[in-house]
Recover the amino acids of this structure.
């Protein structure tokens, strides 16, 4: 028993005064960090212990990093695991972490160049390697994407080879009509960029830093965009149609918990680029479906965080092995073509066809 | 909604006038297309690219030259979302487009676009070169022709449609015609543009296609239409009757209604069904909860309160429909679930985490070995808005009041979400249906098999209750609480097991199991309820189990009222009710 009476002892260690409530339990700072990190620790077990993987070389993981809250927190947690791993002299080889940053200013001109962030990240997490690429490097990484883009965009878009890659990509992106389709297409392009980069540097797995609310919003948005079948790799752990494994270690944590975690580490606070505040008075019809779903998950999540988490869990229960084999894949997003209506076989899936300039509404 | 009603009334009204005016069309025309073209050219010459000035010029000149007041000079910008185009309509009929494109629709009128500013492109099916209409030119779209068109940002056009539109309504309502059904967020893919389209759409193309491609019926089949008197089932009955006659399906149709016993709702809607039965010349069978179960829904609500009564109603309805069909000797019941309902169910099951229902909620036919009565939803691909338009167009007699008891919170939440989605991308309703179909295939085999056996017995009752989600969210709050409890229990459990976990884990794996997380799922064997003989996986079917609870409470309530000495008993009941009320709040 501690010598002095504690008014509100931490329910885990019982030594210190509790400062936070975590899932209805009062905890101190250290126990809080321990609990939250443990959720991710368990999720990384496979790579830490090299389960079902080569035992002699470390498993190479690619980690797309966006300077956002959740990917920064995840990077911090994974780096701590790397520290422990490196401190051990024997044992399993564990994993290597390679962080990939798509330069924010090349995604949207409104994003500031974040070079100091890049340096800070490298300094704070010396056990990881970092690469920063511009968005338009997709042309180098995915050589056939130019042709796919032209076919995807149809008559309304003429690719001009005399322009720079950056301008060509922007020309393509600006021919996509609605905000929903734009967000959808950007998401697909970034996904393909990440996958291609992972393959280039021989990673077998991509670790995504999506937070719980983002995963729930992604699930709902995918369903609303006709991409229901793709949730099995967009929010679930396991094999993706690209031949790489996808993993989402933050799935058991609430965004509020990530925020609390980040507040304990000053280096994280200075690294994180905060999300733009969501404007409440944007008309619903001007939002993209992804934004609407994020708004829905955040507002409903205040009252029913568990229900929102459950959306992702439900999606996670879907079974990849039920996917019909021997089907062709969409040339744009890579999803298997399932239940495509009509006799005309298209190279694009139902959902991609919705976002195409000529056919979208 | 008000605009929609207005428009629909207008459509109905016009449909009646159509025959009369069609033959006398020419004499009603006020403007000559040539005159308008000339006018717009002069306006452009005078004011160049100043669109506001161009519009003002045209309005004032038209007002001067035409006798009487045909023009609405107050600028009312109406957003228009038809034929896949988003733009704004100036109600006198200048059409502006903020980078709009879409399908012109197949019109019953000739349509003239006088391009005031910018360029309009049009694509004719089969041709790869666009037709280009620069500033000052006229794009004439003849009656009945369809084109894909595109107007870039800052392209303005004066659109003039002439056809069978009664001219006295022209300027007030012209925007509701041609490609311009003007209520916001009307479904915007290419098919729904003209009045004719709406009628043909449901009857001819899509509906017939749905029926034939999924071979829903066989010739001579006897089919019961689950009729509630609402718009969906009334449209279903009307369409099925028309198609049956037109394409010789050879079906014997009849109406089957359930009387839940809700005063102020079902009694009125049943009157509508009775009228429909006469109008469509179909036999009608009504099955009442009171005769089947000895309880009306009003009595159930008096007993269990407003919260959770939908469960009773849903379970009872499923059985009642089957029993009604059996009474008629019919093996196929069709219900009026539309695309909106199905989309809502997909979203709801996702929120609820209900995989079994996710696997069967979207299938057009729910059929299983366990039940000999097949259910199908032929309107599965029809938007609710199409159904409303069809009902108005055909002036169908239907009952539009909603159930007086509130809907489930999950459905309310899903419904609000879908209404928002529809505003962003109208096709997303069908996209959700498509997602639902794909996801249904990915539901793990063991869940799928289980759900297949229960499909007929447990189909979720679609579309009950209110549109505005006025429910109190009791179910969601309850689930939230349960999930949090599970979480808390799990975390405590982990703490205790932690030291020996890895050992037990490896042991289990050595046994050849797939790991500890893989749960074995019990397979269900279907039998008959020992009380009522209805198909059930349990000894006693769900309806009988619910009834048992209800009946148990019945005498108890009586005792409490009569013998007030039983203080303990009554106070505990009261406490239970209080607890329930708190959870619901």
């Amino acid at each position: 028993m501690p010598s002095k009476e504690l008014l509100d002892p931490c329910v885990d260690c019982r030594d210190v005064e509790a400062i936070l409530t975590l899932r209805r339990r009062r905890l101190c700072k250290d126990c809080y960090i321990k609990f939250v990190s443990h959720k991710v620790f368990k999720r990384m077990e496979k790579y830490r212990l090299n389960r079902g993987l080569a035992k002699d070389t470390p498993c190479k993981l690619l980690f797309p990093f966006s300077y956002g809250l959740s990917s920064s927190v995840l990077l911090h947690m994974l780096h701590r695991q790397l520290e422990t791993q490196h401190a051990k002299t024997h044992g399993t080889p564990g994993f290597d972490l390679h962080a990939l940053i798509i330069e924010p200013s090349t995604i949207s001109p409104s994003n500031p160049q974040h070079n100091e962030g890049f340096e800070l990240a490298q300094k704070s997490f010396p056990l990881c390697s970092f690469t920063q690429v511009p968005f338009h490097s997709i042309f180098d990484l995915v050589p056939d994407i130019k042709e796919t883009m032209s076919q995807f965009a149809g008559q309304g878009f003429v690719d001009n080879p005399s322009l720079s890659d950056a301008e060509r990509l922007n020309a393509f992106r600006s021919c996509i009509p609605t905000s929903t389709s734009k967000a959808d297409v950007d998401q697909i392009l970034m996904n393909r960029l990440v996958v291609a980069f992972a393959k280039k540097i021989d990673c077998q797995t991509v670790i995504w830093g999506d937070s719980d609310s983002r995963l729930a919003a992604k699930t709902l948005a995918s369903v609303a965009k006709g991409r229901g079948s793709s949730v099995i790799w967009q929010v679930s752990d396991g094999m993706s149609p690209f031949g790489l494994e996808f993993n989402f270690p933050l799935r058991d944590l609430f965004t509020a918990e990530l925020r609390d975690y980040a507040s304990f580490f000053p280096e994280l606070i200075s690294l994180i680029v905060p999300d733009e505040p969501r404007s409440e008075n944007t008309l619903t019809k001007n939002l993209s479906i992804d934004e609407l779903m994020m708004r829905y998950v955040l507002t409903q999540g205040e009252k029913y965080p568990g229900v929102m988490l459950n959306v992702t869990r439900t999606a996670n229960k879907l079974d990849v092995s039920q996917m019909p084999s021997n089907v062709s894949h969409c040339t744009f997003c890579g999803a298997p073509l399932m239940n495509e209506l009509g006799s005309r076989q298209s190279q694009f899936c139902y959902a991609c066809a919705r976002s195409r300039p000529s056919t979208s509404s | 909604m008000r605009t929609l009603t207005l428009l629909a009334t207008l459509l109905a009204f016009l449909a009646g006038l159509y025959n009369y005016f069609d033959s006398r069309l020419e004499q009603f025309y006020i403007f000559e297309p040539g005159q308008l073209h000339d006018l717009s050219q002069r306006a452009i010459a005078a004011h160049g690219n100043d669109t506001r000035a161009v519009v003002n010029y045209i309005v004032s000149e038209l007002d001067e030259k035409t006798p009487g007041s045909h023009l609405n000079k107050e600028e009312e910008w109406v957003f228009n979302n038809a034929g896949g185009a988003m733009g704004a309509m100036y109600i006198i009929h200048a059409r502006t487009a903020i980078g709009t494109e879409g399908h012109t629709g197949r019109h019953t009128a000739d349509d003239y676009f006088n391009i005031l500013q910018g360029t309009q492109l049009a694509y004719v099916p089969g041709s790869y070169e666009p037709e280009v209409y620069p500033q000052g030119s006229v794009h004439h779209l003849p009656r009945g022709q369809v084109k894909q068109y595109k107007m870039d940002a800052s392209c303005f056009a004066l659109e003039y449609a002439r056809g069978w539109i009664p001219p006295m309504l022209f300027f007030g309502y012209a925007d509701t015609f041609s490609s311009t059904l003007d209520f916001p967020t009307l479904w915007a893919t290419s098919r729904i543009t003209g009045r004719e389209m709406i009628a043909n759409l449901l009857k001819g193309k899509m509906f017939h296609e749905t029926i034939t491609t999924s071979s829903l019926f066989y010739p001579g089949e006897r089919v019961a239409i689950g009729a509630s008197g609402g718009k969906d089932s009334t449209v279903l009955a009307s369409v099925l009757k028309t198609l049956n006659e037109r394409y010789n399906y050879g079906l014997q149709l009849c109406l089957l209604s359930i009387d839940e016993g809700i005063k102020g709702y079902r009694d009125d809607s049943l009157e509508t069904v009775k009228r429909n039965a006469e109008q469509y010349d179909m036999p009608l069978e009504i099955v009442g909860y009171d005769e089947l179960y000895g309880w009306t829904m009003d009595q159930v609500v008096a007993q269990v309160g407003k919260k959770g009564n939908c469960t009773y109603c849903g379970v009872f309805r499923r059985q009642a429909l089957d029993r009604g069909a059996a009474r008629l000797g019919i093996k196929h019941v069709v219900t009026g679930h539309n695309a909106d309902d199905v989309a809502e169910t997909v979203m709801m099951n996702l929120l609820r985490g209900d995989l079994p229902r996710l696997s069967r909620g979207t299938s057009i036919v729910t059929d299983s070995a366990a039940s000999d009565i097949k259910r199908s939803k032929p309107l599965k691909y029809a938007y609710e808005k199409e159904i409303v338009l069809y009902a108005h167009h055909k002036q169908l007699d239907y009952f539009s009041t909603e159930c007086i008891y509130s809907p489930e919170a999950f459905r309310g939440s899903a419904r609000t979400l879908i209404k928002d989605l529809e505003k962003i991308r109208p096709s997303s309703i069908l996209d959700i249906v498509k997602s639902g179909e794909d996801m249904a295939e990915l539901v793990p085999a063991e869940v799928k098999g289980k759900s297949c056996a229960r499909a007929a017995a447990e189909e979720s009752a679609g579309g009950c209750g209110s549109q505005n989600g006025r429910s109190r969210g009791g179910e969601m709050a309850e689930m939230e609480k349960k999930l949090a409890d599970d979480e808390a229990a799990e975390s405590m459990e982990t703490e205790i097991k932690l030291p020996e976990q890895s050992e037990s884990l490896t042991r289990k794996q050595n046994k050849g199991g797939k790991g500890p997380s893989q749960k074995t799922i019990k397979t269900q064997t279907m039998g008959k309820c020992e009380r009522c003989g209805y198909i059930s996986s349990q000894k006693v079917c769900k309806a009988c189990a619910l009834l048992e609870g209800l009946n148990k409470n019945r005498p108890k309530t009586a005792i409490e009222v009569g013998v007030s000495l039983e203080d303990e008993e009554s106070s505990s009941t009261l406490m239970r009710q209080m607890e329930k009320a708190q959870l619901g709040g």
In short: Chain B is about 50% helix and 15% strand.
